[in-house]
Amino acid sequence: MSPVRRCSRTACGRPAVATLTYVYADSTAVLGPLATYAEPHCYDLCAEHGQRLTAPRGWEVVRLTDGSAPAGPSGDDLEALANAVREAARPHERAPEASGARSANPAEAGRRGHLRVLRSPDS
């Protein structure tokens, strides 16, 4: 017997990632993380069949999320990222370089913001 549990759907051999349980008294189908043990009245589903799951008319589908899965970025995360990009794009004031002073890196020909121009090895 294989240690990997397979999807309960007919002719689907993909590994199971979720467990489907019906609560008949509440007319509810509960889809949650893969159960620790295979239960006789539960169905193990692969990711595709779990996403496409529909319930009979009048029934409700409750999808429980696994807390270990990484959450998508929040609005605050996206705003912080946008602010960081704006800050990086903003021109920075630099102290004027002394005449004849070269950059610390002899291969560097110039800078523009966070970008730098390098000299060709042939020069």
Features:
single chain, 6 strands, 123 residues, two-stranded antiparallel sheet, 4-stranded mixed sheet, elongated, alpha+beta
Element string (H = helix, E = strand): EEEHEHEE
Instruction: Going across the biggest sheet, name each strand in turn.
Output: 3-1-2-4
Number of helices: 2
The portion of residues assigned to helices is: 10-25%
Largest sheet: 4 strands, mixed
Task: Report the strand count.
Answer: 6
State the shape: elongated
Q: End-to-end distance, in Å?
A: 68 Å
What is the radius of gyration? 29 Å
Strand content: 15-25%
* Mean of pLDDT: 79
Structural class: alpha+beta
Detailed description of the structure:
By secondary structure, the protein is of the alpha+beta class. It has a domain at 1-66. It is built from two helices and six strands, in the order βββαβαββ. It is elongated, with a radius of gyration of 29 Å. The N and C termini lie far apart (68 Å). The model has no long low-confidence stretch (mean pLDDT 79).
